[in-house]
Amino acid sequence: MYNVDFKTDRSIDLIGIGRLCIDLNADQFNRPMEETSSFTKYVGGSPANIAIGSARLGLKSGFIGKVSDDQMGRFIVQYLKANHIDTSGISVDQTGAVTGLAFTEIKSPEECSILMYRDNVADLKLDTSNVSEEYIKNSKALLISGTALAASPSREAVFLALDYARKHDVVVIFDLDYRPYTWTSAQETAVYYNLAAEKCDVIIGTREEFDMMEQFESNDNDDHRTAQKWFSYHAEIVVIKHGSEGSIAYTKDGSSHRGGTFKTKVLKTFGAGDSYASAFIYGLMNQWEIPKAMEYGSASAAIVISKHSCSDAMPTTDEIDRLIAEQKVKK
Amino acid sequence: MYNVDFKTDRSIDLIGIGRLCIDLNADQFNRPMEETSSFTKYVGGSPANIAIGSARLGLKSGFIGKVSDDQMGRFIVQYLKANHIDTSGISVDQTGAVTGLAFTEIKSPEECSILMYRDNVADLKLDTSNVSEEYIKNSKALLISGTALAASPSREAVFLALDYARKHDVVVIFDLDYRPYTWTSAQETAVYYNLAAEKCDVIIGTREEFDMMEQFESNDNDDHRTAQKWFSYHAEIVVIKHGSEGSIAYTKDGSSHRGGTFKTKVLKTFGAGDSYASAFIYGLMNQWEIPKAMEYGSASAAIVISKHSCSDAMPTTDEIDRLIAEQKVKK
Amino acid sequence: MYNVDFKTDRSIDLIGIGRLCIDLNADQFNRPMEETSSFTKYVGGSPANIAIGSARLGLKSGFIGKVSDDQMGRFIVQYLKANHIDTSGISVDQTGAVTGLAFTEIKSPEECSILMYRDNVADLKLDTSNVSEEYIKNSKALLISGTALAASPSREAVFLALDYARKHDVVVIFDLDYRPYTWTSAQETAVYYNLAAEKCDVIIGTREEFDMMEQFESNDNDDHRTAQKWFSYHAEIVVIKHGSEGSIAYTKDGSSHRGGTFKTKVLKTFGAGDSYASAFIYGLMNQWEIPKAMEYGSASAAIVISKHSCSDAMPTTDEIDRLIAEQKVKK
Amino acid sequence: MYNVDFKTDRSIDLIGIGRLCIDLNADQFNRPMEETSSFTKYVGGSPANIAIGSARLGLKSGFIGKVSDDQMGRFIVQYLKANHIDTSGISVDQTGAVTGLAFTEIKSPEECSILMYRDNVADLKLDTSNVSEEYIKNSKALLISGTALAASPSREAVFLALDYARKHDVVVIFDLDYRPYTWTSAQETAVYYNLAAEKCDVIIGTREEFDMMEQFESNDNDDHRTAQKWFSYHAEIVVIKHGSEGSIAYTKDGSSHRGGTFKTKVLKTFGAGDSYASAFIYGLMNQWEIPKAMEYGSASAAIVISKHSCSDAMPTTDEIDRLIAEQKVKK
């Protein structure tokens, strides 16, 4: 059994840092977006979704981010507050930036795409002056996500948050969440992802994301070597996801654990990773065995991909427990 | 009586040039946008609305513009085609630009606002290579609108179109439509608006818009002097709008005509100018007396501001005729 | 005989507007710049050179421009003052811009090239607030040059200056001076050159420069048609230069005059155009016949290309008169 | 006695990475630059100067950098080659970048300033594809300098070089060389300096530079604590310079050594740091005791600041030995 050492003398369980945006999900499914006529508005962004998911499960969550000074920005803060997330770490941009948008298109459960608006977005305007050492010091874990590393000054803000977290024994969790359209090049991405991952305790990503990070090495997609590399820095748990084939979690003590997926009626694939991460983290913070935490993550993902939204669909423990009771995990 | 000399040997009545974008109108009214949950998608942009309005009235319309290479761009082209507008002059951006967005907020009929997404928009990527002399030569009138002058290369494309229009006796109509958020400064705006207006036959704008253009002169908001200035270049008709107090049209022969407004149940104020322009132009092209064209414009505006969208609400001649029959114009 | 109507009730003869920069001329000639070791510093920029040349000939010159807030900017202002040019229209940039640089390489008299530093240059930061109507109103002529049209806000400042000049009967002289490296595209250049040229009284350029401006037309390099085009706007004199084959000047009254070149020992080709323009303008302002003004321009050019600098080598009337006395113009 | 472990099986002693630029030193001293008339051209840039200085002392040096595709870029490569520096790691920019320039002004030995041209410079276009693992692997030491971290893609190239160096036991030396004008903010600078310094074996900087790096901590300018911080990462030697009061070197084994300065006739202060670094590194590579290496550094600095250039004035061992023989170090 392997447990991450979350400090108990902290008032916040999990702080997300980074992207806060708006999902505009087409109300009409199974058709190209040209033929949809209306969109429903949800809070989105990987770390926002994970913070919402964790809060839904009962964790005390907070957020460090920046929103636009307009109706979209205010909607985001109001939604987070209504979901019992501490928003004292959220700043309001004063430079005229806008909220990032993600219009979703669901042609079929297997064919989903996103049309992004990422020019001049407020979330990437987060700067070092918006990061409070005191706030991070009072939390058990800090969750970072790749997109916040994509541009200055947000990138520097994240590296400063990482420094504060390491200094105060805050467990750092990195959900890789690589979105190529946000970056100038895969080379640039790899450099900053690696610099950040060196400072993290828990790293969660897909095989393809780890491959991107290893582009300057010759690794041959070897999960074991990937995990060992990060254990040589500060990592204690490395989770590598292989899509519908499930995932594998390595721990620093040498063990590994395979996780499966749950049956579900898929509406769209968006949100699978974020819901997995929030429930997996919930398990870690409850000092569950890794396999149990992975099962919880998979069940949460199965629920979210059967629903219309990502954030708003995040399940409660009751919903997850019910699904697990109904099904056996496919190994 | 004053008539503009539209050439009759042309296959297209009116070509719009410039902004093609998407309006996302909140489905819930009379509340701040933070409290709305969904949006309906419409084609928008002042010259697009005017082209649609003209087509709805029976004119043969065309468009010179650029759309994004995504679902939003394709939706725009499909909608224009469905409205019998010739889209052969519309190019598709290949640089990764997006479609401009306008989220509307209707707090009350008197308190409407727009949240714009104008970074990296496809409409401003229109360039001189996208402007066909042959296409312009085959039209009776060219409609330009201020926003297309806001940035390179769209600005140069419009000036080239103006040159082609003057060369081939195409009547140029300038709907000022000044949107400050698109511009770097009021000074920059004034310079290019003036350079364009010098080459136009018909200029339509609000008193505030003409004031902006006259900022380097001392004019004291004098409508008559404003009109005389443009008659000294190429203008034949100058329409100056004074909001709910109606408008005044000057013609080069020295006459002026005041126009009133129609009673209506206002839902929102958006689209008033575009619907006015399309019906007024329709009147000019039918060689109507100026007062009759102004009345048609006012009636069209009264209809559009009582409905949810701008473009999709553009009336037919039947709808306008019915409203005029029902009411007397308030002078 | 054709005379331009310069108003006599003005305290300044000629105001230049636009580029003020530094030439760094290699002290070692007839070798590639890799093999030169030191550079001498001179004031440069086409309109600066013309203002200096005119002042050297005895005209009362002034300048509207912007310099960097550093040693280079202060050197430029000091040099102009020392040459009796009024610098009250020169502003100092406060945004951290630098002075444009031109490193010259003289491999042989026929093979000269320039290495330019034009990023973030102060001269292109000139804005409409730096242009005084009163200052322009007090001058007989305004000289513009193409590079100042290359970017905002300098471009708008020039168009405003043109408006003031036309309003107050100030003769506008346009030295085309097309520098491709300053521009985004030849199409963009042509649009703004044409808009400016429409407002000018005297236009001076090479055949290649006029070809660039006519790229949207089919003209076939016809000097006569080029001149006629501009006479249909406001031009009264159009000078078209054909390199070593001399130049031709058209006047609005239908005459044309060919000018030749003087023999000289060429050190480099830089500065030929600027020295020609300053002496030609000097002739016009003295109400000389066109051929005599052209001869004066050619003699001035012959002197400057035999010397190391452009600005500092500008001749006095004595020097020009002596050269003319010595030689017959080669027809 | 403390020795850095330089691997002996390497064909190159020291590779510099980063800034390659041109110094234009006023030929006239002791006056403001407005009153100077000519400039002499030298290769410049901190890591370039250090590579040249090391080569002058007999080390086998190489360089990883990018130069402009023009006469300035070619001059730099030719000069390095002539100084026996391996230039196989230098790429040529293809994007139209220019060579950075530094015009020096020597008002008095105490009052020297630099006018920089750093817009669109080739050195910051170095990218990850220009960094060869094989090249770094064949060297004993890699020298980095702060400016190369100032912008993408150069920053990523340096971090990749650091990874290769650590992987292959190449000693990494960081000459902080903080140039504020190159950076967006001091906060941004601190984040990347710290990320880089964590991976370095030898760190050399002024007290002010270390203060900048510690701005997110409370350290109170404590040299000892500064050194300890870096020893907790990979550092083995930390040199902190206190201007004319000399410097102090800390080694990981707990010792510290104070170094003094040599008497000299100062012409200008430029180049002091670079000449110090090159001779100090020369000492380290010869396994000298730290105090002897520091003395060598100080003597080299004393020579360079008495001469006109930085790079071209770098001394040979004979010159340094002679100065040391002549003087006692002022403690």
**Overall strand count of chain A:** 13
Detail the poorly predicted runs of chain A.
none
Strand content of chain A: 15-25%
Distance between the termini of chain A: 20 Å
The CATH superfamily of chain A appears as Ribokinase
At the first level of CATH, the class of chain A is Alpha Beta
Order of helices and strands of chain A: EEEHEHEEEHEHEHEHHEEEHHH
Which CATH architecture of chain A would you pick?
3-Layer(aba) Sandwich
* Integer average pLDDT of chain A: 95
Biggest interface reads: A-B, 25 and 25 residues
Strand order of the largest sheet of chain A: 5-4-1-8-9-10-11-12-13
Helix content of chain A: 25-40%
Number of domains of chain A: 1
Structural class of chain A: alpha/beta
| CATH fold-level topology of chain A | UDP-N-acetylmuramoyl-L-alanine:D-glutamate ligase
Describe the main β-sheet of chain A briefly.
9 strands, mixed
Shape of chain A: globular
Quaternary structure of the protein? homotetramer
Walk me through what this model shows:
With 331 residues, chain A is of the alpha/beta class. Chain A has one domain (12-19, 46-92, 121-330): Ribokinase (UDP-N-acetylmuramoyl-L-alanine:D-glutamate ligase). Helices cover 33% and strands 24% of the residues of chain A. The first copy, chain A, is built from ten helices and 13 strands. Chain A has helices at 46-56, 71-82, 133-137, 154-167, 186-197, 207-213, 223-231, 272-285, 290-304, 317-326, and strands at residues 12-17, 21-26, 38-44, 61-67, 86-92, 101-108, 111-117, 139-145, 171-175, 202-206, 237-241, 247-251, 256-259. In chain A, the strands form two sheets. In chain A, strands 5-4-1-8-9-10-11-12-13 form a nine-stranded mixed β-sheet, with helices on both faces. In chain A, strand 8 (139-145), helix 4 (154-167) and strand 9 form a beta-alpha-beta unit. In chain A, helix 1 crosses helix 8 (272-285) and helix 8 packs antiparallel against helix 9 (290-304). Chain A is globular. The mean pLDDT of chain A is 95. At the A-B interface, strand 3, helix 2 and strand 6 of A face strand 3, helix 2 and strand 6 of B.
